[in-house]
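Mods, move this if it's the wrong board.
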Amino acid sequence: MNLANRITLARIILVPIIMVFLLVNIDIKPLEFGDDYSITYNQIIAAIIFIIAASTDGLDGYIARKNKIVTNLGKLLDPLADKLLVAAVLISLVQMDKLAAWMAIVIISREFAVTGLRQIALLDGSVMAASTWGKWKTAVQITMIISLLLNNFPFSFIDFPFDEIISWLAVLITVYSGFDYFFKNKHLIPVQ
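Not the wrong board. Structure tokens:
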């Protein structure tokens, strides 16, 4: 259990903590700015924890590669941590009526499909590196989640629906990146 793996494990441990802050109603008056913006303290805390957890995504891999401590455990835990973090928060956002269920289903389904393709690649003796579209997908999903957690802050002050736009963009890029992975790795899928 090296430093990189501990960081990855910490990201997994933060998932239920984020969910508690999102789904358990603590009866404290929300923070309000004027008549148009209101946010619960739970959401603020959950957003901060999510940002910390999401920021460790690249850190653990960087540390592992730099210090030459890449392990099979790390290769297993890192993508699992990413999927758990995103899926848990998306499902929580659906529960909170901040994200359409179909959007969460599309995003989570893509994650499962690409993970399955990665497993097929591993069985074939190859490793699927993250694509440029996959990296964009991650960045846009994280931006979407933060925007939804913060109730479209600061864009709500100018009545700009950034949270809606970024949600649609996240779905589109997620679907496209999924197709991109499957198209570029179609040789891994046996067709008879």
